[in-house]
């Protein structure tokens, strides 16, 4: 096998991405606009700082004690984007010490490498001219955002793109830009919001109910509500479902009897829990009938309640539904065991390089001698194609190192 394995040009499916989850694309009550509105375009100029202070790194920067918006406002500026446009030297100088302490962390490291690869400038130099050139290059390309995605995907050797979207996405009229987006973007439907439809007053439920012609308020109407929702999504090319309940609760979705569920009102904690379980199982029944995969957020938040082991019962109950466990850190052993023992459980390392390239290395080293190779996927879960590009570079390099070592150990050369 030799001393190197070049994986730089092999195809990579981006099976779980959030490209466009940045300020200039805007927010709607349901969430980031691209997850609700097909073909969403930037509402203003997109620049380098919009990618830097995204929900991931921007949030972790704040968690580390840095508030760039407050620093900018202390200088009489609206925010770091506006400050950099007016006074780039001052804005970069003020931000530099805060960014430097994060240079080795996953999100900034991925974004730095992605911008360097796609725009030719290294942010780590903290040279104002380099930042301005990167800013101008990003702005130019995001003027035609979908043409840029297609170009960048080719440069990154991304063969397909899948993004999770909200149920409302499938009821929108298709604009010209939506048609353009659909030529290279596949979707999975997020079911997260459905688990909150027990509230007496719920605008999202009411709007979807009006759109589908069914108000879900009991067992029968809920089933009549979900069936056309899944039909509508399927008609628009939906490939599966996705949920992130691991952020807020454990993953033990118990089967519930229809008669035990209160579907609307002032629910107590146990009633709400039972309602959530019922909705998850109802969605799994429909996904199982279609042989749709089900992406499930595992780990990273709500520790230790985001352990995936309780999902064994869900996997066994719906054998035609592939459960794709995404992220998985720190429960790498548990996730690997499920994928090893159950034919319909799969793993996706998405987000791990963005959290820490070391977490990705740890995951592959944990799984490679235990989990069949066809059950391990390597997406990126990035907020921009630039961040995904950087994540891909780390993924390919680390995977190459590990495979070379394994090839030597098993005399594959």
Structure, described:
This protein has 413 residues and is α/β, with parallel strands linked by helices. 47% of the residues lie in helices and 10% in strands. It contains 17 helices and ten strands. It has helices at 48-52, 55-63, 68-74, 80-86, 88-100, 106-119, 128-142, 145-156, 176-182, 203-212, 219-235, 269-290, 311-317, 332-341, 352-355, 357-367, 385-409, and strands at residues 12-14, 27-28, 31-32, 158-165, 185-190, 238-243, 294-298, 323-327, 345-348, 376-377. The strands form two sheets. Strands 1-4-5-6-7-8-9-10 form an eight-stranded parallel sheet. The chain has a two-stranded antiparallel ribbon with strand order 2-3. A hairpin with a 2-residue loop joins strand 2 (27-28) and strand 3. The protein is globular, with a radius of gyration of 22 Å. The model has no long low-confidence stretch (mean pLDDT 96).
Which SSEs are present, and which pair or pack?
Elements: E1 12-14, E2 27-28, E3 31-32, H1 48-52, H2 55-63, H3 68-74, H4 80-86, H5 88-100, H6 106-119, H7 128-142, H8 145-156, E4 158-165, H9 176-182, E5 185-190, H10 203-212, H11 219-235, E6 238-243, H12 269-290, E7 294-298, H13 311-317, E8 323-327, H14 332-341, E9 345-348, H15 352-355, H16 357-367, E10 376-377, H17 385-409
Parallel strand pairs: 1-4, 4-5, 5-6, 6-7, 7-8, 8-9, 9-10
Antiparallel strand pairs: 2-3
């Amino acid at each position: 096998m030799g001393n190197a394995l070049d994986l730089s040009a092999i195809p990579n499916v981006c099976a779980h991405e959030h490209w466009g989850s940045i300020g200039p694309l805007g927010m709607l009550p349901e969430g980031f606009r691209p997850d609700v509105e097909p073909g969403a375009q930037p509402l203003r100029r997109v620049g380098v700082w919009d990618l830097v202070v995204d929900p991931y790194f921007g949030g972790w920067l704040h968690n580390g004690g840095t508030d760039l918006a407050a620093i900018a406002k202390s200088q009489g500026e609206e925010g770091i984007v506006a400050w950099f446009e007016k006074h780039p030297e001052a804005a970069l100088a003020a931000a530099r010490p805060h960014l430097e302490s994060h240079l080795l962390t996953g999100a900034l490291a991925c974004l730095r490498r992605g911008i360097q690869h796609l725009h030719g400038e290294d942010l780590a130099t903290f040279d104002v001219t380099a930042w301005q050139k990167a800013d101008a290059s990003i702005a130019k390309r995001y003027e035609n955002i979908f043409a840029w995605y297609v170009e960048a995907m080719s440069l990154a050797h991304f063969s397909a793109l899948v993004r999770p979207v909200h149920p409302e996405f499938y009821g929108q009229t298709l604009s010209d830009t939506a048609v353009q987006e659909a030529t290279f973007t596949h979707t999975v439907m997020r079911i997260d919001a459905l688990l909150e439809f027990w509230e007496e007053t719920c605008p999202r439920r009411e709007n979807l109910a009006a759109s589908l012609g069914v108000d879900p308020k009991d067992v029968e109407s809920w089933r009549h509500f979900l069936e056309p929702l899944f039909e509508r999504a399927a008609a628009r090319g939906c490939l599966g479902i996705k949920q992130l309940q691991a952020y807020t609760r454990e993953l033990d979705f118990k089967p519930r009897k229809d008669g035990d569920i209160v579907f609307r009102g002032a629910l107590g904690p146990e009633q709400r829990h039972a309602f959530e379980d019922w909705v998850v199982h109802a969605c799994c029944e429909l996904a199982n009938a279609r042989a749709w995969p089900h992406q499930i957020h595992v780990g990273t938040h709500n520790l230790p309640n985001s352990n995936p082991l309780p999902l064994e019962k869900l996997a066994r109950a719906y054998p035609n539904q592939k459960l794709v466990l995404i992220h998985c850190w720190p429960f790498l052993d548990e996730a690997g065991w499920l994928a090893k023992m159950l034919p319909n459980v799969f793993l996706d390392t998405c987000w791990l390089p963005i959290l820490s390239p070391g977490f990705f290395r740890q995951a592959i080293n944990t799984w490679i001698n235990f989990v069949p190779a066809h059950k391990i996927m390597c997406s990126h879960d990035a907020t921009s194609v630039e961040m995904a590009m950087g994540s891909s570079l780390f993924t390919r390099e680390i995977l190459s190192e590990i495979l070379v070592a394994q090839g030597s150990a098993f005399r594959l050369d």
